[in-house]
Amino acid sequence: MTTTIRALLGASALCAVGTLAAAQEGTVTIATVNNGDMIRMQGLTDDFTAQYPDITLEWVTLEENVLRQNVTTDIATGGGQYDVITIGTYEVPIWGANDWLVSLDEGMAEDWNSSDILPAIAGGLTVDGTLYAAPFYGESSMVMYRTDLMEQAGLEMPDAPTWDFIRQAAEAMTDEEAEIYGICLRGKAGWGENMAFLTAMGNSFGARWFDEDWNAQFDSEAWANTLNFYLDLMTNYGPPGAANNGFNENLALFQQGKCGMWIDATVAASFVTNPTDSTVADSVGFALAPDNGLGKRGNWLWAWSLAIPSSSDNVDAAKAFISWATGQGYTELVASEEGWANVPPGTRTSLYENEEYLAAAPFAQMTLDSINAADPTNPAVDPVPYTGVQFVAIPEFAGIGTQVGQQFSAALAGQMTAEEALASAQEITTDEMEAAGY
Amino acid sequence: MATQHSRSAARLMMAPAVFVLLVWMLVPLIMTLYFSVLDYRPMRGAFDCCVGLSNYTSFLTSSAFLDSILVTLVMVGGILAITVVGGVALALLLDKPIWGQGIVRILVIAPFFVMPTVSALVWKNMFMDPVNGLLAHLWEFFGAEPISWLSDLPLFSIILIVSWQWLPFATLILLTAIQSLDSEQLEAAEMDGAPGYSRFLWIILPHMARAITVVILIQTIFLLSIFAEIFVTTNGAFGTRTLTYLVYQRVIESQNVGLGSAGGIIAVILANIVAIFLMRIVGKNLDA
Amino acid sequence: MARAVTPQKKALWTVLAWIVGLIIFFPILWIILTSFKTEATAIADPPVWFFFDWTTENYGIVQDRSDYFRFLWNSVILSVGSTAVGILIAVPAAWSMAFVPGRRTKDILMWMLSTKMLPAVGVLFPIVLIAKWLNMYDSYILLIGVLTLINLPIIVWMLYTYFKEIPVDILEAARMDGATLRSEILYILTPMAIPGIASTVLLNIILAWNEAFWTLNLTTVSAAPLTKFIASYSSPEGLFFAKLSAASTMAIAPILILGWFSQKQLVRGLTFGAVK
């Protein structure tokens, strides 16, 4: 009896070894975005190939828009070009529900601890209890500000500021002669650019995209307040040409010392405090995204994540790669090579319990608090039928969001008034939702 | 000279080119036609036959459609105007006796070799950026307020970028045309005391007419499908959404392949109307 | 030069032409200059012109990050390959159109040109599906095929207009002298056609090299040319003008150099029948 069991066990163990060996070879083609953390990962490829000598990694690093265009076409046609793709919390629920992604519940490396992933992040990558993507880095948004300029203005930034305070501070810090603008915000049109910011901001003003019957809500007073406040801030205290500024442009402005405050992704914290790139590295403070006393803050939740398309023919090797890139070992590897402040943030609980990390990254606590303050299932003050903080997790959203974003961007550029922008946003959204069958 | 034999030989020689182009045109066109009557939205898992012409009606009736036609016309027209006028001027200039003519010509044709993506990226970031761009520095140097090119003058900015790329092409063709002009005719006119502008108006310009129509035809073909320059600079915002870009937004951003395919078919029809119109003119010119 | 030109006039034209030439060339010069700066110098205010610490570190970083030579090699294969195939198909077609014109020759030519008007984005899904179905996605064959097809109309037209300029009388004279068809083609027509073919080849290489829609959407790794290489340097996090410039210089330099060296050949045939 026992011998039989033992024999069986032995056989299955052999099998396991067999499949593992088979798994650890082949070429894994990885599509990723050209953000700093991903480029760093590409530079550390040697560590992975040392562990899995039979797996070859092919990197396709692309700018975000081109990447999305490529990956979406590939997955929608079942092209099977990529074994690992880099996507966000917007795509994962939709693609996962379409069975276009491989479940990561099984087959990951043993030390890849899924229960360690921050619950807020894991929630956004899970569909019906199945995890479809592994977070590479997670982010929320928060206020980054210049402590020196704040002091000069005689103000003190609270940990949890209100929008009114932000306006007051922006006014006090603006000095156009010296090319210092009180506040830098996203203005570039796109669902992942200005609409990410404005949707999150709208949440704190009591605005929402749709009511519970999927009726567009841009004719609401809350949206009018949001947009007017934003336009007022940006035209009076923002940099010139703000309607073309996205994350990158604002990062550059802030690093050059031209912004007093910047409300954007928490992941920017490590860039603006990095003395080699930033001229203001030692005078940056952090605060939670502002609110209006309505119970919601204007911060979002996003995670660049690695997933495997169902059309991949090398799933096991892809899982080995994802286990490596999103595991705790990778964090330690980056820490030892580049310092703790540069590890990809916002994905694992253990990172925020690590004393070394907390000591090296002054923004760590604020990042964690911001991530925890975002609630994708219940983002707005009023109830909504959708999930997603700064997006609406339906397939039509990318198209609608970008078109609406273009209206708001045009309003910022002074080509139309806030009322006109909202009216045409309402019209576009209603049309598109009708066409989509809501 | 054209015997029956040489005719059939000629047909045979032409066959491969005609055949591959026919396949290249028909296969995607038929598939696009088929998609255009489907409710094909891959993100929804929808692939339903058949919704009739509803994709066409919704594409044609959306407010974006007419705007995009207008933008396309302004953009193509603007670029053509700049490149033709600039090309004539440059060709006249390069035809003058100058020292270092070869080098100047090399400098002038260089933009034609630059990838559209690269030129859009460089113009956007290094020249037109209102804070760090070189044009902003130039404006500041003269004490003027820097312009936010891509949000205040978006259409003009794109026209400028694309014109920069195509000006060399126009210049080259027009220059060859000028150089082929019989110089004796010009000299005779000069002897008669005809002033410079009238020589230009009555002798040089008519001589270049044919070259100008060729430039217009070829550039129009390429300009109708401008994509990279818009994608990189404004992403279709601020009224720079051409018909091509609108189709792109429908197919890729909205992931509505049915609707986008209908848009594609409409674009093909419109482009062919333009083509027929243009070719009538050029065809006549080529026969002459 | 038959026309008498005073030195003053020549000097005036020279100055004017050089100013215009330099303005047109300036953006390219600026890319090249910026590629040798550090990131900090690249965004210095006011801009720095020539006197900075020249560095080649950007080129090193770019090469480290993405294997430039693989992209370059692919660009060469795709542009040369598609040009070769295109010429092979186009020369006979243009030849017969020029020397044995039928009633519908002109219509066929115009129809060919009109296929270029098919908006690429509209047929993206069909082409991707066909590529997947043929299992040729990201292969040289597919890309060479597509690039050949999109440029074929231009090649045919260019060659046609060039061949048409070849005087038929010469042929007939040769025939009188008892020349065979073979020697006719080999010794009379080919030498006359070479400049036109050469400039067509050059123009087509340029067009194929710079094509950025199909090459981006139909490749991943194996056949990815320089257009894909550039896509990994546009808008990264932060402004990396110097690296962007280095990558841009690397992407355009080969074709720029080719273009400059062969500009005489390019210009000779680039007439599209515009000259008569």
Question: How would you characterize this protein structure?
Answer:
- The complex is a heterotrimer of chains A (438), B (288) and C (276).
- Chain A is α/β, with parallel strands linked by helices and 438 residues long.
- Chain A folds into 2 domains: 168 residues, Periplasmic binding protein-like II (D-Maltodextrin-Binding Protein, domain 2); 208 residues, Periplasmic binding protein-like II (D-Maltodextrin-Binding Protein, domain 2, 3-Layer(aba) Sandwich).
- In chain A, helix 17 packs antiparallel against helix 18.
- Chain B has 288 residues and is mainly alpha-helical.
- Chain B has 2 domains: 36 residues, no CATH class; 188 residues, MetI-like fold.
- Chain B has a two-stranded antiparallel sheet.
- In chain B, a hairpin with a 4-residue loop joins strand 1 and strand 2.
- The longest helix of chain B has 33 residues.
- Chain B is flat.
- The model of chain B has no long low-confidence stretch (mean pLDDT 86).
- By secondary structure, chain C is an all-alpha fold.
- Chain C has 2 domains: 53 residues, no CATH class; 204 residues, Orthogonal Bundle (MetI-like fold).
- Chain C is 71% helix and 0% strand.
- In chain C, helix 9 crosses helix 13.
- The relative contact order of chain C is 0.14.
- The mean pLDDT of chain C is 86.
- Chains in contact: A-B, A-C, B-C.
- Chains A and B meet through helix 4, helix 11, helix 17 and helix 18 of A and helix 7 and helix 12 of B.
- Chain A: It is found in: Periplasm.
- Chain A: InterPro entries: Bact_solute-bd_prot1, SBP.
- Chain A: This is Sorbitol-binding protein/mannitol-binding protein.
